[in-house]
Structure prediction request, 506 residues.
Amino acid sequence: MSETHRAVIVLLILGLVAWRLARPLGSEQLPGAHGLRRGLWFALTIIAFALGDFWVFSMLALGLLIWARSRDVNLPALFLALLFVVPPSRLDIPGFGLINFFFSLSFPRLLSLVLLLPLFLRLVRQQRAPQRGLPRLADLLFMGYLAVELVLLAREDSVTSAARGAFYVFIDLFLPYYVFSRAFDNLAKIRDAMASLVIAGVVLSLVGLFEAARYWLLYASLVQSWGSPEQLLYLDRSGLLRGMGSTGHAIALGYLLAVCLLLYLPLRERMRPGWQANALLLLLCGGLFSALSRGPWVATAIGLLFYVALGPRPVRNVSLFAGGGAAAAVVASLLPGGGFIINLLPFVGTVETSNIDYRQKLVENSWKLIWENPVFGSTDYIERLAAMGMVQGQGIVDIVNTYLQIALQSGFVGLTFFAGVLLAALLSALAARKQAVRAKQEDAVALGRSLAAAQVTVMITIFSVSSIVVIPWVFWCLAGMLVGYARVVQASTRAERTAQPALRFA
Prediction:
């Protein structure tokens, strides 16, 4: 039996266990959605591994997605549920002698074209009330960032390359943010989308733990059979394999599960008390650990601290959280194997401290280059960083900082718009949560608290990783979701205010 066939058998078993554990989250989804998305996950996984051909898989997946599109009333949630079925490896669609190639296709791009594009066309035809305040500011900043990206495509070597880049901007950036910021018309759909992403995280947590325990990347043989240039690399730390599942990289798995952990907390409060609620929490934490990615660990701790600070009795609970974390670190250092865990921690541990040194040196050298082209960045920053000695052991210049990456290629103009979008989305959710508190909408308050904490986690994590594999898909969808949440809360509180005089008259 080939490795691909053995891998799919293991994945199906792990999937059965994960979806069974996550079944209580089905009550947080819209009616019928849980079963539909579960069936699609298994069908797409079997097709991908059984066929071993990316193009045949894409054609069959296209048919399944078109079929599911008419049966799922919440397409953004369906998008998140299926985003991590297979790795985001890209293959070029050949140009058949007309051009070199049309564009690079990946499964996330296929999902964007089949699920988000038709919904976008439907949304632009709808009449909507004028938007004001922070959601409007987030939209303007986002359009500014898109404008910078499109203008800088003029630096491409050919017209076809520039046109291809504009197409990527549309399907990779514009569609996720636009659709997620406008497709939700009630809190139930937002909760459904959150639950879908959490369930995907539960599946990947189990896969990551298995990969770390067995030193076997389950999706590596699939990507190899596809012939993609973006192969999954075995990365270890202290003799342990870093799990990555279908995310394409270990740090991407940690980043995703950090977000899932924060989004799970309000859903857990609504679940029936029992072992499954705690098991899902422990599983997400275990998956986060299996990635052995220290940046997401730090971001998760800060995100949890932010989540606690937004809750009741913040001073007392933040003090308890900080004290409990310190006590847990002391206890862990005294337990057998605890020193191993402590050594993995950033800043206090001794494992691979060269990575931290590399990041500090990257900031120093990048800062020099940014100031040479501060407005719109440059195109030769990779070569110039290589000349400064920033080539990693894999023979590449790894710009492990999304903010630096954007500043280098788009200057302070691009960085201002990019960071402004993320910050405006966060402030939109916080302001909407405050509105919900005044309106005594407890469900909206809980969702806003979780979404804001997840956004803080994302904004911190991308300080330690560039926009690779699934990472940009998650932060654009999440930013759009925060803005969409703000619009839903604003609409509901506005409707309550307009209804109150009529109620008093009656």
